[in-house]
Amino acid sequence: MAQQKQSATDKKGATAKRGFASMDEEKQREIASKGGHAAHEKGSAHEFTQEEAKKAGQKGGKK
Length: 63
Hints:
Residues 1-63 are annotated as: Disordered. The chain is mostly helical.
C-alpha cells in the first residue's frame, strides 16, 4: 500500500513548528546574530544612512 505524507498540521488544525521556528528564542537570536556579523564582515549587509534611518523612524508602523 502507498504511504500517505503527514501534513504539517495536527488534528486541531494548528501548524506544527518546524526548523527555525521550533527553536527557543535565545537559540534563534544566537544564530541570527552570527548571520548579521558574517554579512557585515563580508560587506553585504545594508547599513542605513542617517537620512534612511530618519525616514524609517518617521514612517513607524504606517504603510
